[in-house]
Design brief:
Blueprint lengths: L9 E3 L9 H5 L5 E4 L2 E4 L9 H5 L5 E3 L3 H9 L4 E5 L3 H4 L6 H10 L4 E4 H17 L12 H10 L13 H13 L4 E6 L13 E4 H11 L28 H4 L6 H4 L1 E5 L1 H13 L6 E5 L16 H18 L2 H10 L21 H10 L19 H9 L9 H66 L5 H27 L7 E4 H10 L7 E7 L5 E4 L1 H17 L5 E9 L3 E8 L29 H11 L3 E7 L8 E9 L3
Helix pairs in contact: 6-8, 15-16, 17-18, 18-21, 19-20, 20-21
Bound molecules: adenosine-5'-diphosphate and magnesium ion (MG).
The site of magnesium ion has 5 residues, from helix 20.
Length: 660
Amino acid sequence: MGHAKRNKLVFTVKDKCRVCYTCVRECPVKAISIINGQAEVISERCIGCGNCVNVCSQDAKVFLDSRQSVHNLLKSEDPVIACLAPSFPAEFSDFEDYKQLVGMIRSLGFYRVIEVAFGADLVAKEYKRLLDSNGGSTYISSDCPAIVFYVEHYHPELVSHLAPVASPMVAAARVAKQEFGQNAKVVFIGPCIAKKAESDEIDEAITFMELRIMFEDEGITKENSSASDFDGPHPKTGAIFPVSRGLLQTVNRKDDIVEGNIIVASGKDNFKEAIREFEKGELAMNHLELLCCEGCIMGPGMTTCDKLYTRRANIGNYVRNKLSVLADENWKNDIEKFENINLSQSFQAVDRRLNRPDSDEIERVLLSMGKTKQEDMLNCGVCGYDTCEEHAIAIILGNAENEMCLPFAIERLHKSVQELNISNEKLANARQALRHSEKLANMGQLSAGIAHELNNPLGVITMYSNILKDEAKQGDPVKKDLELIVEQAERCKNIVGGLLNFARKTQVKHSETNIVEFVKHSLQSIVVPKNINTEILTELSDFYVMIDNDQMMQALTNLEKNAIEAMPNGGLLSVNVKGDEKNVEINVCDTGTGIPEEHMDKLFTPFFTTKEAGKGTGLGLPLVYGIVKMHKGSIEVVSNSNPEKGKTGTCFKIKIPRYN
Ligand code: ADP
Ligand code: MG
């Protein structure tokens, strides 16, 4: 009789979800998927236990709100019966007298208010009958709908073990229909979310939480409602059911052997473990009394979730007071009156277990999270799954993401930080290079201006001093002075020429050039002292490059001259030409003195020279730099000037693209 209603029970408020994976961890059936960092309840898998609602610190999980439907029922013609769950004294501890609460429920428009606890009395009797006549069968209690859903979906082979007995709620509904007419509508009010989907014999189910809001919405208070007692039939010990160790125990057979073989388990981990052991046959001789929450008084539909023991005490007090005024005779009469009620219940196996993906695939996913060996399987549970393997399976099934793995995420973060550091460094270098070339450009402009202005007067000085020198007679002391003037003027001209070279804005005239021949030629056009050997090394297959011959010759000879000047005691000048399809590299290396660390960043600055006056202008390297840049190339220096660190020497590496 009666079937489950398949409602979507729990929803995620996406804006509030902060992806802590607590709901995944607490969900006993892993009915929560994380997609793009958002938690989503998979309603086909959900058993309505409400754990996720309880544990979410952000209130990002909400359950189905049935208030409007109840409201609609109350507005209809049919009488509506409220069935109040026996856990109500635990919720409504702010009421001095339960009759105030009953009065308020009536004020909402309910025709009658009865206690589900009477249903529990009937059901307890039925369990007793079942256990007395079980003929060796063992049962799993079926009063907790979340447990029933769990068995139906995740242990379908055990469905035949579910006690074929209606829950107290359904029993109470059947009582209500018999008592108040088949057209009566039944609304269950209790601490449970799963009840909303348990049975189509219940028209609606709301939680205590929703009831309180309904009072508020309608402005119903203790003061403006008149207190009244429950309508009959009145319960006896069934009222203690939410704090007793379950229904089977409510049967009250302390001296019976049955008591010895009832395993009571409550809470999401315990009930699963009990079922697992039961299924394996380890508990074959035992009945299972299972509750998904730590007793119904800890249900997710209660307004607060603390004070377990105060709640127990409240229920105890309520039942004690009730029993003190209950006439046993009346109760017996009521039980007899409803003896004919059918208390049977059938259950349906609907297998929702997921197929395990094949091991290769699991391994592949584990690998993608950097888990290659057994030690990498930390099974830390941060992702919400007990093991790395379960997490990998959930990823394959599309219910989880690898970012949920904390060690993996940290590893990735480290990598990103490292990459960021590298690009920061690159950025700093680029900025320095930019500043440098800006400086060079400014210097270039200035030098061009000065050089241009000096060039003409210098020409005049050179010309006239040469004339005077030629006219001066041999032996005339003036002739020596004039020779000095000519020599120094010549030097000035060289400097000015260098400046003009450095600053010129000529374009690059590319022509296809055999670079190895070109390098040979460059070495031939400089004076190489006897104590210096030269060599050309090449690892090129294609010798041809597009370069401006004049400019590149200047650049190369400048580097070669510098190299020679760095080897006053002789050495080796070696030019190595390398490259690939795109670029050609020319390395001009010497075994000279090397460049001290502190000079490195000044090398390309105009007028930087360490050579004595008259020897160096400090314009060679800036010129080389300009020319290389004009060829869209780059220049690097590697040098060692410290004999303690190894052989001294310098390598200037020019890299230019073959084609522009
Ligand atoms: P200059 O040769 O007129 O001094 P450069 O611009 O050509 O000007 O070189 C600047 C300075 O760089 C040189 O004075 C020298 O200190 C240093 N330098 C350049 N090339 C080398 C090299 N191959 N070995 C050692 N020092 C070098
Ligand atoms: Mg030089």
